[in-house]
Amino acid sequence: MIAPFLSPEDDDTVNPLPEEVKRFLETNIDSVDQLEILRVLGEDPDKEWPAVDLAREVQSAPQSINAHLNALHARGFLLVDKRESDLFCRYGPHSPDLVGRTAQLLQVYRERPVTMIKLVYATARDPLKTFADAFRLKKEG
Amino acid sequence: MLQAFIYVLCALTALVCCVLLLRGYRKSGVRLLLWCGLCFLALTLENVILYIDVITGPELDLSPYHFVAAALGAVVLLYGLIWEGK
Amino acid sequence: MHQFLLGAICMAFAMAGLFFLRFWRATRDRLFILFSLAFFILAANRIGFAFASEQSVKGDWLYSVRLLAFLLILLAIVDKNRSTSSPGG
Fold this sequence. Notes:
The structure holds three protein chains of three kinds. By secondary structure, chain A is mainly alpha-helical. Helix content of chain A is 56%, strand content 10%. Chain A has seven helices and three strands, in the order H-H-E-H-H-E-E-H-H-H. In chain A, strand 2 and strand 3 form a beta hairpin. In chain A, helix 3 packs across helix 4 (62-74). The longest helix of chain A is centred in the C-terminal third of the chain and has 16 residues, at 96-111. The two termini of chain A are 24 Å apart. Chain B contains three helices and no strands. The longest helix of chain B has 27 residues, at 2-28. By secondary structure, chain C is an all-alpha fold. Helices cover 78% and strands 0% of the residues of chain C. Chain C has helices at residues 2-27, 30-51, 62-82. The interface between A and C is medium-sized, with 24 and 16 residues.
């Protein structure tokens, strides 16, 4: 991933992200790992990934990869298949609307990775989101 | 008695909220959850005291205690919402 | 003394209800509107107690109103865990 860290176009205050992309990200993405998972899966939509390989590819902890995959699956981004004790996943938004919005999300992520990552971190620390998320009984990672 | 049952249910709900919020605070460090969690702890206590008050009958009056519990909960909640909410 | 505390608690819960209402407007998360309603009901419950006569304090439908508030909170929790399956903004 090429990230022009000091690029002025990446500053959200100078050149704000589209509002619907922001909202989509704030609602559906909890961590940078999840964004990376979508990116990697989206690059080759037909490829099926074992969770272990995916964890290595996105540099995520193996323990948390399953939680991320389940969360993204629950939100309708991926197809997940459990065989024996291993999890396999593939890119697969569950509705045409999601297909478009996810593609848009990944497009913006490609163009402005630093801004998107900053937004994920800002969202993760948001008190209101943290309050609401505290009531999720299933730990999504 | 229905009233006692209602207090138990309220106490349990408040306890669930308290546990979820305090667990969330421990994970995230977001203080809003701490204050709200403590508020629900106080509400749990309030409902437990009310329950005891009801089942022990008129000879034991615990009203100062459940009022104080609720008041403490309300104060803590307001403090948290004012200072820590967005 | 009881009346004073009732009034103070009522005001505090009503304010909390207003805060949760503001949070709902900011986030559009259903959990906050349900919490807001619950705290408004808890506030209204205290008003009911303030005006209730001494005899009716124990054993009255006012307690069911309290239950309604907590049921709304339970509903918020259940809803939050069910809606993890619905994506989108």
